[in-house]
Structures are given as structure tokens and as C-alpha cells.
């Protein structure tokens, strides 16, 4: 059975008899395959299909759906989900189907369309979205709670190659770890590139496959590493939109909690190290011949960039 026929069989019990039109595979997405299509009856409804095999790293599709629904109930902007399944029986692999959200995801295009007021508004909306995600009710949802630092230590060890800067950073982080804060739902990959932006600002938060329980600092810090500024200066350290301090203050206002700046610096170092390990892993995929790719090789060259950022952070520097 073809994919359009499979989608029609899945959606007919939910929407009535529909035809599948304009099925198009979209670019982007490292761990999931994404398709856009229309479900057509007496009306035309734009939908998104995400598929991907199960693994030990990414959340299952049903968990993604549950978590997004909980986040939406807490006030976070997310796509409306029609259905999700961890079974491969319906469309050949686990899947999630949601409404398409109009807007832009290409970060450089987003930046070009923003003036100072627009950047400030979007930054505030990002902070408010994170606050909503972090207050979501996870009771009855089986969300994992990994140790972020130990996780990345293990992944680097699996590669079998390291650098002096990475090793020194791991030691410093272990020695200076702040006291733990309450565990909350975290997105796990909240950054420019995983957001849909329209004329009113933040329209939706995408790509929930790394969601888990963790400290709120993890999401706050990940948004502020150099990679997600896309060339913007360090003075726009929060996603290339504004200062880290203005982002944190907006988050504090929305969440009603105090953000320890020292703990945030520790987590910003963890986030930068995480990106460095990811870059090293992507290089290994190319160099080993597993996935020959100019893109992976280019990402691998950014290991030295993350080493510089780590040394800067450990010496008291970093984004503003």
C-alpha cells in the first residue's frame, strides 16, 4: 500500500473520508523524516507527518504527542496533534500527524524580517514558551530523567577520541556542579531552528524528540550557545535575539522563579560541551565512512570553535 493510501486509512476514522494531496517530503530534521500534505474532503486541511524508527535516544511518537499536549495545556504554542503511534503497522514506521502551522523556520530569514522591537518581542515569547513548558503537568507520563553531563561523557567515550579541552571541561564541571534544582519537563532542543515564527512572533515550538525531565537551566542554556545565534554577535547571546540577561529576566517574570546566574553559567558550559561532542560525533560518522557527507565534515570542523567557547566560559567570558 502506498503512503497516501496508508495516510488515508489512518485519517478516515478521524476526519471522515479524505483524499491525500500534495504529499511532499520536507528538508531538514536529523532524526525524523517530515512530510507535508493536504487531507481533502469538502475542505482542505494542511497537515504534517513525522516518521522515524525507535531508538534509545529519542522519545517515542506517542510520548512526543503526550508531552506536547501537556505543554499546550500549560500555554506553550505547539501544533495541534491529530494522532500518533509507536507502531510501524500503519505507515511503515512510528509516526505523528499534526496540523501544519504557517510561518518561517529558516533562521536567517527570520532574522532578516525582524527589527529591534521584533527581536525583543520574539525573545520574550521564547522565554514565555519555555516557562509554560516547564510548568506542564507530567503526572502519568513516562518521561525519562537522564543525567545530562554523564550522558555526554558516555557518548564521547563511545567515539573513542577526545581533546584536552573537552577533558579539562568535564573535570571542571564535575568539581563545580551546582546544587540540583527541581526537575521539570524540558524540551531538550529548544533553539532557533526548532521554532516557527510568523508576523505575530512565535507561532509554534517544534521537534520534541529529545524531551525529558531535567532542570530548567538545561533549556535556558541550550538556547544561548553560539551555534544558535547563526552569526549574530555575542551581545545577542540568547538565540541571536537579545542579551542572555534580558532573556533570563523575561523567563523569571513568566515562570515566577529566580534563575541562579552561577548555575546558568555552569549549564551554559555543559550545553557548549554537548554541542562540541555532537560536532565530534558528526565528524566521526563522516571519517569512519558510516555516512560520507560534506555537511557532517563541516559540522565536525566546528569542534575547535566549541573548544574556544569552552575556554572562554571557563575563564569567565561568554555571551552577554
UniProtKB/TrEMBL annotation:
Species the sequence originates in: Mycolicibacterium obuense
Listed InterPro entries: ACAD10_11_N, AGP_Transferase, Aminoglycoside_PTrfase, Kinase-like_dom_sf
Record keywords: Transferase
GO terms of molecular function: transferase activity
Domain Aminoglycoside phosphotransferase: 23-239
Name of the protein in its database record: Acyl-CoA dehydrogenase
Pfam families: APH (PF01636)
Domain of life, source organism: Bacteria
